[in-house]
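step 4 of 6: structure.
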Amino acid sequence: MFDSLAIVGATGAVGQEFLHLLEDHLPHVKRIRLLASSSSAGASIPIRGRPHPVETLAQDSFRRIDLAFFSAGAAVSREYAPTAVRGGTLVIDNSSAFRMDPAVPLVVPEVNPQQLAAHQGLIANPNCAAILLAMVLGPLHRAHPIRRVAVATYQAVSGAGRAAMRELEEQTSAVLAGRPAKPEVFPHLCAFNLFSHNSRVDDSGYNDEERKIIAETGKILGVPELAVTATCVRVPVLRAHCEAVNLTFTEPVSEERTREILASAPGLRLVDDRAANRFPMPCEATGADDVLVGRIRQDLSQPDGRGVDLFLCGDQLRKGAALNAIQIAERIMES
Amino acid sequence: MFDSLAIVGATGAVGQEFLHLLEDHLPHVKRIRLLASSSSAGASIPIRGRPHPVETLAQDSFRRIDLAFFSAGAAVSREYAPTAVRGGTLVIDNSSAFRMDPAVPLVVPEVNPQQLAAHQGLIANPNCAAILLAMVLGPLHRAHPIRRVAVATYQAVSGAGRAAMRELEEQTSAVLAGRPAKPEVFPHLCAFNLFSHNSRVDDSGYNDEERKIIAETGKILGVPELAVTATCVRVPVLRAHCEAVNLTFTEPVSEERTREILASAPGLRLVDDRAANRFPMPCEATGADDVLVGRIRQDLSQPDGRGVDLFLCGDQLRKGAALNAIQIAERIMES
């Protein structure tokens, strides 16, 4: 049981979503400590009706803290998470710092909860786009091995934080009013525009976000060598990511079989109404716990029947980040 | 030489772009007749400094007209284009009515101009997303046969016409002001949202837009059986379409070779700056003649070196519609 909880990055977009979810989750936690950089410290945030001060993160912030949730970037996790773990705090880290460390479980509770058993005080929460993808690939792969995945993403600006969400709204207002719109958080205009994901592009031409999806999906599914290609794109949407997914199985898998598997998978909701042209959309995924999946169809370019196309959408801040982390904590408490 | 030109659908988004392009193109045309449905007729539109009345489209509208450009939907083309052709008018049809008719050339001038020689009075202008895709696939396929294409689109609202562009702007204003935003042109909210393309979904699960891309790309490239799968999505962008393209060649093709071919292909502009994270974007493709292409990289999920990923963006109203039609007319005049 966790009596005390610290949230590192409490004032960020994911931290705020975490606090919001605490209204319904982890009711046994009695003491909540909010931590942030010194520039954000000093504020007071109400949780369950009581004000909580935001304190400056320090190496001694985790004394007598059972559980810490980190969402303040990889550098902060690298600097502070090891101290917390050594002090006996269970760390769930939303950054990329430790995700590919072989000693660290990388977990989507609906997909690979068994990896939790081997944790050594730190569990990594996967990349948001990788979580959403794994939620759909996990149950399919368990039933019919997947050979190859090609994914194109439509990613909300929330993945870049609260300032990015404000930038989209302010830029859009400016464009509509005919005023100049200057990018600050992003390298390019986001209002009525889209652009390749704003992470570093390596010598292979893939960007860091794509590398995360490729590597983390393989680790979560337990197939490190899984063939995945990804193209990650930011779209002018506030907080739900979509992904167009082209699958190749090792054997023929019908559209009906795919739908049947996904319909009974935990944490997914089928939105696949061809007559009404109703499929997964950010406006319906926003604020929802479930990942929406639809557009399920046989890929006609793979005439051997091994190909399936589908489309998914999930709240980047919720299942893509804070909710998945909370579910990890809940699983550990149950075990 | 064309002395006289009629534009059917002159008040629509593509018709307006056509008129705009006439400032620089087809200078030898002396007489321009603007045609539209009776609800739009009566207006007056200035072209090259002179007012032109918009007349109601009728079966006798094409008398003494050398060239007619149709962009008022498939039903209008089916009803009026045959009369125009019989009267000796060369018709360039932007609708889907005749595109897959084996007797009708379906042409992207940079890619398959040879098909123009066989025309019988009517030439079809391909679907906007198919034109942009063919511009990139054409030169690649000529050098290295393509085996399979998987494409995910990010399509602007302009493909659904001027009312759709207004809807995006008005809905976005409403959402920002906290007012209710009611979809009218589209079945779903378009402000800060995205949704599967608003065309009919058939029993296979593909929608009409995807079917057009699949069939038309094969016809333009001269490989009707080309294996193509597509996922078409509307995004809150005004008038430039993007496409994430995953290619499989019949032989290994390097990233460098792909870039070399595309760099020298007519009508394309490489935007592929990894260090600056600068790739094709709607805000730079809008109003441009060229199709932008970048994110060119070896697809690491195809370890035999036959896979390439890339991303393209082009103005839906310009190269995706009006400009391509004008270029068809210009090619015919040159021949």
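step 5 of 6: annotate
 - The two ends of chain B are 10 Å apart (CA to CA).
 - The mean pLDDT of chain B is 97.
step 6 of 6: archive
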